[in-house]
């Protein structure tokens, strides 16, 4: 019993157990948190009876183990319940916010990875030069500063002072957003997307870049690089055709980790740049004690991280035939 | 040489810091402590336990956090051990509002149109029937004499007569001090004066008021008013919503029989006339304005009005169910008249029921109710929301924007083409948008420092509206030492209200005396005397009640009294 199918099967089973534990933890975690979804009532000065009625409508008046049982039963059937604040099925709620997040996160990570690979390769190639010292210090500076801080400084300088970028949001108020293409494929959207993507990428770039750099340094000492040079290939050719390709392997795992990491940063990016995505939904749902939405968004994060780790493990074998699945 | 220089610098600094010390009466600590008499050989048993003052986190509300710290300092001077404990709002609301597991805590009743009527403050926060789990009588105040007045003001419909009763209730409240009024905070809100003119605002609501959007006029090409707010709405279905911003939006789409005017009085709106049929305040005949239509063209009839009141009762709609509580039955008289029969006279009926209820179209909701029942109505997303108010829905893109178009056939049409309601992630991003000319109205009160930042902007005007909201401190009367009136009075005298206004609110606020804010012009009685900061009076109050101080200045109970429960001082459980 070995080989790829067995390996994948085992890993999927592991993933399922992990997710089960995760959803259970999430369920109890949010209920242990102080307050309940009716803490907002104080603000609206609703009567005591209203609070009781709402708790009953949400089933929160039942004992905890009964609530858990019901939740798990629905969960297995793919039903994440109803949002407490909008009384809409949780999956529909997430559906409203997912696209903006996919676009922002996708462009951030893409930008970070491309820049990381290029700079990682170059810093390795020009090891010991001033160029390397400057690039590495800048990358580490952005990595060490909190993402929201970089975002705020960038906004203050580039948007408020220099008027180069919009101050946030996905487009200027009053734009027609009825069609998908009209919303996401135009210059205005890209203009709004640019600054948060750059800020996010600046923050994420250091890790994969350093991994790329050390991997590259190792590869550069290999014989085949020597050989390519001996063949008389151009230096550029040697770096990008031979060295970079062979150094990419560890970066693949790093990217999987980066995505998990980026979800956390996404929350801050969306708040600072007023981006209408999942990140703000997470913040709002926790503040409003909207358990079903909060649970589902955290669960979704867990699924993404676990899934990507699985994919990177499988991809490893494909990219490097020396790796075997046991 | 260096040493002398250092010495010189230090002494100059010391001198300067001494100069900057305020000489106001409220911070003159030395004389304060010396007026406290010392008794030796007090029994340890009589020592007043350490009390906790819960405040919000500075992040949730810096004002409550700061004045909590300031007040605790004053209480310490009275010889009380005070621990200031900041709590997350959710936790504070659970412990303080629901379980009543606290000693004292700072709270704010936000000023809203429905709180202009004194019933919320006079009855809602103080009647003994509301002191149980979850009730808003947080202090646990129980005084039959007060209860009688609180009930009476609900029955008397003549405003002048009612005002007298409210005043009497306020006087008893001040004598008993179940909670201490601290301040009324001004609402500071920005708008773009270049794009819009004829800005109207009302107490308790500021620029978010219904009247703002009805009156506002464009000056140029910007025909849609862009209304910024630091969060999105939760839902377009007011029948299940519990979020106050949702109602700031849906009240523009649904019409009301009565609306609270800019100055706070109820004003007939969709109702043409309201008649107290027998003059006993038990039945009201409401006649609708003729010719009103819902946004889908159907006429607004008395059937819709009756349906609305019956609907919210049947489905237990959280926001509306309390308002329909006083109603026994609703009868349709003819197409435009409807009669409300109340269980007993209820003075706030017009301002808090008729002025808050929406008119829901029966033809829209009845099929949903028939098909899917109460749950179906509560879970209905209502994205095609149909009302008869001045604005109709165009679209709602979550966390992006909500577009409302002006309903031109409305009886009092708005002057703009519509409203773009834009949610921001927080107040900062909202203020930045107003500053940048991307939003025309900042729909949240901003901090004085943010207002200063907008000063240089020629196109932005910042308004300051006195508020009817109330910052206060709840005392838990179910616990020692707060069960003692003398103790409560003493610590209330020690609240430095003037410093709170000057230093924390930077002048944007007023001292709070009683329950009703001065901004609430009709219901406010200026001759009601509250508590001014008076440290001597605080000490006198305690001395007269028999409290004593040891040589360390710590406070001791009067002879024969001691904390039974050393930790929390509980003497009465929450029911």
Question: If you had to describe this structure to a student in words, what would you say it looks like?
Answer:
The complex is a heterodimer of chains A (326) and B (575). Chain A is built from 15 helices and no strands. Chain A has helices at 4-32, 41-44, 48-57, 64-76, 90-125, 130-144, 147-161, 180-184, 187-204, 206-220, 223-230, 235-247, 249-272, 278-287, 291-319. Chain A is globular, with a radius of gyration of 24 Å. The termini of chain A are close together. Chain B has 575 residues and is of the alpha+beta class. Chain B has a six-stranded mixed β-sheet with strand order 2-1-3-20-4-21. In chain B, helix 16 (485-493) runs antiparallel to helix 18 (535-544).
Helix content of chain A: over 70%
User: Mean pLDDT of chain A, nearest integer?
Assistant: 85
**What's the main sheet of chain B like?**
6 strands, mixed
Largest sheet of chain A: none
Work out the radius of gyration of chain B: 27 Å
Strand order within the widest sheet of chain B? 2-1-3-20-4-21
Supply database-style keywords.
heterodimer, A: 326 residues, 15 helices, 0% strand, B: 575 residues
Compact description:
Chain A has 326 residues and is mainly alpha-helical. Chain A is built from 15 helices and no strands.
Question: What layout of secondary structure does this protein have?
Answer:
The complex is a heterodimer of chains A (326) and B (575).
Chain A: H1 4-32, H2 41-44, H3 48-57, H4 64-76, H5 90-125, H6 130-144, H7 147-161, H8 180-184, H9 187-204, H10 206-220, H11 223-230, H12 235-247, H13 249-272, H14 278-287, H15 291-319
Helix pairs in contact in A: 1-15, 5-6, 5-9, 5-10, 5-12, 5-13, 5-15, 6-10, 7-9, 7-13, 9-13, 10-12, 10-13, 11-12, 13-14, 13-15, 14-15
Chain B: H1 2-20, H2 29-34, E1 51-56, H3 62-77, E2 82-87, H4 89-99, E3 104-109, H5 119-124, H6 144-155, H7 159-176, E4 179-185, E5 187-192, E6 196-197, H8 210-215, E7 217-218, E8 224-229, H9 244-253, E9 258-260, E10 266-268, E11 271-276, E12 283-288, H10 302-314, H11 318-324, E13 327-334, E14 337-342, H12 349-354, H13 362-379, E15 391-397, E16 401-406, E17 418-423, H14 427-435, E18 441-442, H15 448-454, E19 460-465, E20 470-475, H16 485-493, H17 497-504, E21 509-511, H18 535-544, E22 548-549, E23 555-556
Parallel strand pairs in B: 1-2, 1-3, 8-17, 8-18
Antiparallel strand pairs in B: 3-20, 4-20, 4-21, 5-19, 6-7, 9-10, 11-12, 12-14, 13-14, 15-16, 16-17, 22-23
Helix pairs in contact in B: 6-7, 16-18
């Amino acid at each position: 019993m070995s080989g790829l199918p067995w390996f994948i099967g085992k890993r999927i089973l592991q993933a399922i157990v992990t997710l089960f534990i995760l959803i259970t933890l999430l369920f109890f975690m949010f209920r242990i948190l102080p307050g309940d979804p009716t803490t907002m009532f104080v603000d609206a000065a609703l009567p005591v009876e209203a609070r009781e009625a709402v708790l009953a409508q949400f089933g929160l008046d039942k004992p905890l183990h009964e609530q858990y049982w019901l939740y798990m039963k629905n969960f297995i059937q793919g039903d994440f319940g109803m949002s407490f604040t909008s009384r809409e099925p949780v999956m529909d709620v997430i559906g409203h916010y997912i696209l903006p997040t996919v676009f922002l996160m996708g462009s951030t990570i893409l930008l970070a990875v491309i820049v990381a690979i290029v700079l990682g390769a170059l810093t390795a190639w020009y090891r010991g030069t001033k160029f390397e010292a400057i690039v590495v210090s800048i990358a580490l500076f952005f990595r060490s500063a909190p993402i929201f801080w970089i975002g705020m400084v960038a906004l203050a300088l580039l948007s408020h002072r220099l008027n180069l970028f919009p101050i946030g949001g996905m487009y200027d108020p009053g734009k027609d957003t009825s069609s998908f293409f009209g919303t996401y494929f135009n210059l205005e959207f890209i203009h709004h997307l640019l600054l948060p993507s750059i800020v996010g990428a600046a923050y994420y770039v250091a890790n994969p870049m350093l991994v790329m750099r050390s991997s590259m340094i190792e590869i550069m000492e290999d014989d085949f690089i020597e050989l390519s040079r001996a063949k008389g290939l151009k230096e550029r050719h040697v770096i990008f055709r031979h060295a970079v390709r062979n150094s990419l392997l560890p970066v693949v795992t790093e990217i999987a980790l980066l995505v998990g990491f980026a979800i956390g940063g996404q929350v801050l990016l969306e708040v600072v740049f007023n981006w209408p995505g999942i990140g703000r939904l997470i913040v709002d749902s926790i503040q409003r004690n909207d358990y079903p939405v909060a649970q589902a968004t955290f669960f979704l994060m867990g699924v993404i991280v676990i899934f990507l780790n699985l994919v990177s493990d499988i991809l490893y074998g494909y990219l490097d035939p020396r790796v075997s699945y046991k | 040489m260096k040493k002398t220089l250092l010495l010189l610098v230090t002494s100059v600094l010391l001198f300067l810091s001494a100069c900057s010390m305020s000489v106001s009466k409220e911070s003159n600590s030395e004389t304060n402590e010396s007026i406290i008499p010392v008794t030796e050989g007090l029994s340890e048993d009589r020592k007043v336990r350490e009390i906790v003052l819960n405040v919000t986190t500075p992040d949730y509300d810096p004002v409550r956090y700061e004045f909590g710290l300031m007040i605790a300092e004053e209480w310490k001077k009275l010889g009380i051990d005070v621990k200031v404990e900041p709590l997350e709002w959710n936790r504070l609301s659970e412990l303080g509002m629901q379980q009543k597991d606290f000693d004292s805590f700072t709270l704010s009743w936000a000023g809203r149109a429905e709180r202009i009527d004194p019933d919320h403050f006079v009855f809602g926060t103080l009647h003994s029937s509301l002191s149980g789990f979850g009730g808003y009588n947080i202090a646990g105040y129980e005084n039959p004499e007060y209860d009688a007045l609180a009930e009476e003001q609900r029955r008397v419909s003549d405003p002048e007569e009612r005002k007298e009763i409210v005043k009497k209730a306020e006087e008893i409240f001040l004598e008993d001090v179940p909670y201490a009024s601290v301040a009324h905070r001004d609402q500071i809100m920005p708008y773009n004066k270049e794009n819009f003119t004829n800005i109207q605002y009302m107490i308790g609501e500021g620029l978010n008021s219904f009247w703002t959007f009805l009156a506002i006029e464009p000056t140029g090409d910007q025909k849609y008013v862009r209304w910024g707010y630091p969060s999105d709405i939760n839902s377009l279905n007011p029948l299940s919503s519990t979020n106050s911003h949702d109602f700031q939006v849906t009240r523009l789409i649904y019409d009301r029989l009565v609306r609270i005017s800019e100055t706070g009085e109820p004003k007939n709106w969709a109702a043409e006339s309201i008649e107290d049929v027998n003059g006993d305040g038990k039945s009201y005949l409401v006649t609708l304005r003729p010719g009103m239509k819902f946004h889908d063209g159907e006429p607004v009839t008395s059937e819709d009005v009756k349906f609305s009141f019956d609907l919210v009762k049947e489905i237990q709609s959280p926001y509306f169910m309390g308002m329909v509580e006083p109603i026994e039955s609703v009868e349709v008289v003819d197409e435009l008249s409807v009669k409300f029969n109340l269980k007993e006279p209820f003075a706030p009926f017009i301002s808090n029921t008729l002025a808050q209820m929406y008119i829901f179209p029966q033809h829209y909701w009845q099929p949903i109710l028939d098909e899917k029942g109460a749950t179906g109505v509560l879970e209905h997303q209502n994205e095609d929301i149909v009302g008869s108010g001045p604005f109709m829905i165009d679209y709602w893109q979550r966390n992006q924007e909500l577009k409302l178009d002006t309903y031109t056939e409305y009886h009092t049409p708005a002057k703009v083409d519509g409203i773009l309601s834009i949610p921001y992630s927080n107040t900062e991003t909202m203020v930045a948008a107003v500053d940048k000319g991307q939003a025309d109205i900042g729909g949240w009160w901003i901090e004085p420092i943010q207002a200063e930042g907008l000063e240089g902007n020629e196109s932005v005007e910042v308004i300051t509206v006195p508020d009817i909201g109330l910052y206060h401190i709840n005392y838990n009367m179910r616990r020692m030492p707060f069960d003692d009136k003398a103790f409560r009075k003493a610590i209330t005298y020690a609240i430095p209200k003037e410093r709170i206004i000057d230093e924390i609110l930077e002048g944007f606020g007023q001292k709070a005396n009683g329950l009703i804010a001065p901004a609430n012009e009709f219901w406010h009685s200026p001759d009601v005397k509250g508590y001014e900061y008076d440290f001597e009076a605080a000490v006198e109050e305690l001395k007269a009640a028999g409290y004593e101080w040891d040589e360390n200045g710590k406070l001791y109970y009067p002879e024969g009294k001691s904390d039974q429960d050393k930790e929390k001082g509980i003497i009465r459980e929450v029911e």
